[in-house]
Amino acid sequence: MTSSSAQNNDDVLFFLAANPYICNSYGTATNPCRSHWRCVMADTLTILDNRTGKKYDLPITYGTIRALDLRQIKVNDDDFGLMTYDPAFMNTALCKSKITFIDGDKGILRYRGYPIEQLAEKSSFLETSYLLLYGELPTKSQHEEWVRNITLHTMIHENIKKLMDGFHYNAHPMGMLISTVGSLSTFYTDAKDIQSPESRMKQTYRLIAKMPTLAAFAYRHSVGRPYVYPDNNLSYTANFMSMLWKMTELQYQANPVLARALDVLFILHADHEQNCSTNAMRGIGSAHVDPYSAIAGAAAALYGPLHGGANEEVLHMLDAIGAKENVPAFVKDVKEGKGRLMGFGHRVYKNYDPRARVIKRLADEVFEVTGRNPRLEIALELERIALEDEYFIKRKLYPNVDFHSGLIYQALGFPIEMFPVLFSIPRTVGWIAQWEEMLNDPEQKIARPRQIYLGSDQRDYVPISKR
Ligand code: ACO
């Protein structure tokens, strides 16, 4: 019995391109080669079901089989069919994507094919955002128009200020950001029209433009200072710094080295394919809700200490260690399972996170302006010892993006609570790019996993007096 699921033309084309030794007469998407059985069949997986003795041939494309192809594998007609069990999506591809490529073993990260190191060195955050969203680097005129469209949307409705005022004096800025970005859906009701590319584009401008404004207002609220309105004569990051730190001067003068460092940090954090918050964005967006509500959900996922909250935890950890000489004892505790070395390890990277390399270099430039962060010594010692330790080597635990980013953020003058907020601003671009890709993907539907039910079988309700 052979699987009935047909490969689409895209799959056949990919197979041909990946296996040129099999076929020299490459087909086209509409007219694939049919001369060789492997071109028609591509690779297959043969499964023998020992329960029934039946054999199944499932097509393999892009190194995957389709989970739904397993459904035909049944013991009898009443059987639901075989499923896969994959808690935490350890080995499940959710989508086909053309946005971000990661090779975790080699420590490679590329946006739309461009190595992250090149973008960090040569591009700007807004240019990289265009690249992520549109798939190509902009021409000069496209870039100018793009920057103008973002800059024109930096203001927020006055009522959002009132909403911000309602938060307690010590409210976490990430909680404020999540709530206020979600509230934007009540101001821009046209955002519900997610099937309209024009409407989606407008919400995209608004989101990229307003996230720094919301973030800065949340910060100003938490330190009890008056809100600073956007200054559209400044660059994206210089304007953000102005909204954060302007006092009575007429125009805020951002230090160019620090503004550039923030821009590079934004580039590094813009997208990271199917991470926890992006998965939340795709999952929530798959129900066709407006993008503000979906981004509030994605940002909530990012808030978690195992994801975007990790750099906050790194600083707490460095404070708890206190001094360089306490590092060996701390590492010993980690190895004994008494806690984790925050900022180390990654689900995908089993090598040095390429973003961490760029950030380490960036830290030197920032510290030249701001002076060294006193925790740097502890961090470097921790990194040195961990990278030489058998426990970390065996498990392929390397520093991730969060290990050094917190030190830079702190040197720039951000309180620890702002760290996940700083992550959310650039990641908004990645969330939108992935959301857009999902909505345009004809194979995507509302995300709805299955479960293995292990609870009670049917039983009758017992009145409370008889329990
Ligand atoms: N410190 C100590 N041990 C660790 C660490 C760590 N940071 N990370 C993983 N391990 C150990 C685990 O205890 C486990 O050991 P075992 O096999 O003896 O049980 C093994 O390494 C594998 O760990 P998992 O938890 O299975 O790895 P997973 O891929 O599920 O987790 C994660 C990845 C969540 C990032 C994890 O490494 C971690 O908690 N790191 C610290 C938090 C952190 O820095 N998060 C930021 C991630 S980057 C980002 O989101 C931007």
Question: What can you tell me about this protein's structure?
Answer:
The protein is mainly alpha-helical and 467 residues long. Helices cover 49% and strands 5% of the residues. The chain is built from 19 helices and five strands. The strands form two sheets. Strands 3-4-5 form a three-stranded antiparallel beta sheet. Strands 1-2 form a two-stranded antiparallel ribbon. Strand 4 (108-111) and strand 5 (114-115) form a beta hairpin. Helix 8 runs antiparallel to helix 19 and helix 10 (256-268) packs antiparallel against helix 15. 37% of the residues are buried. Bound molecules: acetyl coenzyme *A. Acetyl coenzyme *A (ACO) binds next to helix 18.
List the helices and strands and how they pair.
Elements: H1 9-18, H2 37-41, E1 43-49, E2 54-60, E3 100-103, E4 108-111, E5 114-115, H3 116-122, H4 125-134, H5 140-151, H6 158-165, H7 173-187, H8 197-222, H9 236-245, H10 256-268, H11 276-285, H12 291-302, H13 310-321, H14 327-335, H15 354-370, H16 376-388, H17 390-394, H18 401-412, H19 419-439
Antiparallel strand pairs: 1-2, 3-4, 4-5
Helix pairs in contact: 3-10, 4-10, 4-19, 7-8, 7-12, 8-9, 8-19, 9-10, 10-15, 10-19, 11-12, 11-19, 12-19, 13-18, 15-18
Question: Which tags fit this structure?
Answer:
467 residues, mainly alpha, two-stranded antiparallel ribbon, globular, disordered N terminus
What can be said about this structure in brief?
This protein has 467 residues and is mainly α. The protein is built from 19 helices and five strands. The strands form two sheets. A three-stranded antiparallel beta sheet has the order 3-4-5. A two-stranded antiparallel sheet has the order 1-2.
